[in-house]
Each structure stands twice: as C-alpha cells, then as structure tokens.
Write a structure and sequence with these properties.
This protein has 18 helices and nine strands. Strand 6 (133-142), helix 7 and strand 7 (165-173) form a beta-alpha-beta unit. The chain has two domains: 11-249, Aldolase class I (TIM Barrel), CATH 3.20.20.70; 258-331, Up-down Bundle (Four Helix Bundle (Hemerythrin (Met), subunit A)). By secondary structure, it is an alpha/beta fold. Helix 6 packs parallel to helix 7. One of its GO terms (molecular function) is tRNA-dihydrouridine20 synthase activity.
C-alpha cells in the first residue's frame, strides 16, 4: 500500500477552455475519485460582475476541485479567491501560462511571467484573504527567454510570497505568431527544466504539465516531481482515468466498465434535462469513452448527430449503448 495521500495533486486534469466544464468534471468523477480537477479559466471580471452561478456552480462530488482564475489585479483576485473559498473550492489557481492574444489583451496569462513581482503581489493578496491553497500555473519561459534561470527566478520570487505549489507547463509560450493550439505543440518540451525546479526547490510542490499521453510516461515523471497534470489525453481518451486511483493513489476499488460509468451519470443527466439543459451539452464530453474500442465510431456518430440530439433525452444514450453492445464480441479487443 502506498503512502500517497488520497487527497493530493499526484494526478491532475488540466484546466481546458470549453472542455473542463461541470459536465465533463461530473463525468470524470465516475471514473476517478481522486484525480484533482480544475475548472476552465474564469477571469475576475466575470466573477465580480457577471453570472456567478454560471461560472462557479459545481457539484460537491467534483471535489477535490480548483478554480482557475485569470487576472492581474491583486485586490480583485483576492475578492475572487474569497468567493471561491465560500463556494467550497479546494484551491485557487492563478493562470500565468495562457498565451492567447485575447488573454494578453487583459494583461494576464503567460505575459505575467515578465512581471514576477506582480504575480507575487497577486499570490500574497489571495493568501492573505483565504485559507485554501493558492497555486500558480505557468510556462518555463516566454518568447526567446529560454534560459532555465528565467523560470527558476520566477518561481523563487513567487515562492517568497508564500506560493507552495507550481504547475509548470514544460514549454515556452510564444506570445506573438502562434495560436494557443500551436503553443501546445511547436515550442519544444523541456521536461528537464521542470525536474530541475524540484531539485532546486525541494520544499515546493512541483507539478509537471505538457505532452503526457500515457500512464507509463506520467509515472516516470513522478520519480522527479510531485505530480503530473494531463490535458488532452484525459479528455479525448477519458476511460484512461479509470486506472488513476489504482496507479497513483493505491485505491483498489472496483473499476467500472464503460457502460457502468455511463449509467452512473443517468441520474445527473436526467436531473439536468429536467432543468432545461440540452443533452448535447453533456454528451459532447463522453464521445471518447470508447476510444480504441470496436464500436467507438458508432458511439460518436449517434451522440454527435444534431438531428438525433434535438430534444433528445436519456433514451438516446440507451440507443448508443445498445449499438455498441450489439457489436460482435470477437471484434472487441
């Protein structure tokens, strides 16, 4: 039995805009009890002046759960952190890694790495306001700043303000000329920079993000850092999450098969349908459930058909499950 706490960031699912909404997170919880979940990034203005229910609502079954904030004004971030704590979030994470031009126009995201003292002020303001963890997600550099010293000094400055957890995406952020998608693919991965951060700051919790596509790769990194954060692989191949509790937390509870995981969502989905939520907003997150299995194409086809989804209810999910179950067993891997 491992000494790993069940309530830890050993395996995290990355915040992903338009993907890690409350419907995806509820689905993820049918597959893993312990992975640390993150919301999509929410900017401070949306919380302070917008629809709080829309941006902050979650089911307590989603915990452990972090709210990722976008912003650069210490006082506003502190107010949002207090709201997050009051709503029951376990962590507030400051986005210092998003390279999109829209985010840069608000003077937050990856461009904040140029101003470590400001990031430190933001962290201190939030830590002075709340008792929950305040963490930072960042890149290892921006534009042509490729020296390890740059990220080392950034982490050191922000750590002096009391931040104990850093989630490092092991790529530079190119602020001009690359799209967010290209920024996830073109700048080279430098895992050794993140491993070195842990050696240089042994008292800090260092979590590695970027390019992890298998449990084997993730577990190899865990010999060098405290945690891993997985993004696209966790979303596009969600059934990989069924192994997380056993592999990372030594929790040997029975693993649900794909159909059981889907059926575990039925009560939630029907309640949301009754409240007026269209089925399409929920099932778009489960399209990869049968990834790599015979029947995956039919599953995706049925649950992404706009005509079938119009005014659809749980019966469409039943139809998709029946279609997959009807596939010849000898064709299943």
């Amino acid at each position: 039995m491992s000494d790993t706490p069940l309530f830890s960031r050993r395996y995290c699912i990355a915040p992903m805009l338009d993907w890690t909404d409350r419907f995806y997170r509820r689905f993820a919880r049918t597959l893993t009890r312990h992975a640390w979940l993150y919301t999509e990034m929410v900017n401070t203005g949306a919380i302070l002046h917008g629809d709080k229910m829309r941006h902050l609502r979650f089911d307590e079954i989603e915990n452990p759960l972090a709210l990722q904030l976008g912003g650069c004004e210490p006082a506003e971030l502190a107010r949002c952190a207090r709201i997050a704590e009051d709503w029951g979030y376990d962590e507030v994470n400051l986005n210092v890694g998003c390279p999109s031009e829209r985010v840069q126009s608000g003077s937050f995201g990856a461009c904040l790495m140029r101003e470590p003292a400001l990031v430190a002020d933001c962290v201190k303001a939030m830590r002075d306001t709340v008792g929950i963890d305040v963490t930072v997600k960042h890149r290892i550099g921006i534009d042509a700043q490729e020296s390890y010293d740059f990220v080392r000094d950034f982490v050191g400055t922000v750590a002096d303000a009391g931040c104990r957890t850093f989630i490092a995406h092991a790529r530079n952020a190119i602020l001009k000329g690359l799209s967010p998608k290209e920024n996830r693919e073109i700048p080279p991965l430098k895992y050794d920079y993140v491993h070195r951060l842990k050696r240089d700051f042994p008292a800090l919790e260092i979590i590695l993000n970027g390019g992890i596509t298998s449990h084997e790769a993730a577990l190899a990194h865990l010999t060098q850092v405290d945690g891993v954060m997985v993004g696209r692989e966790a979303y596009h191949n969600p059934y990989s999450l069924a192994e997380v509790d056993t592999r990372y937390y030594a929790d040997q509870h029975p693993i649900p098969d794909r159909e059981a995981a889907m059926r575990a969502l039925r009560g939630f989905i029907e309640a949301e349908l009754s409240a007026g939520t269209p089925l399409r907003l929920m099932v778009r997150h489960v399209l990869g459930l049968y990834q790599g299995r015979h029947g995956a194409r039919q599953w995706r086809r049925t649950l992404s058909d706009s005509k079938l989804l119009k005014n659809a209810d749980w019966s469409l999910v039943e139809q998709a499950l029946t279609e997959v179950r009807a596939m010849p067993m000898e064709a299943m891997p």
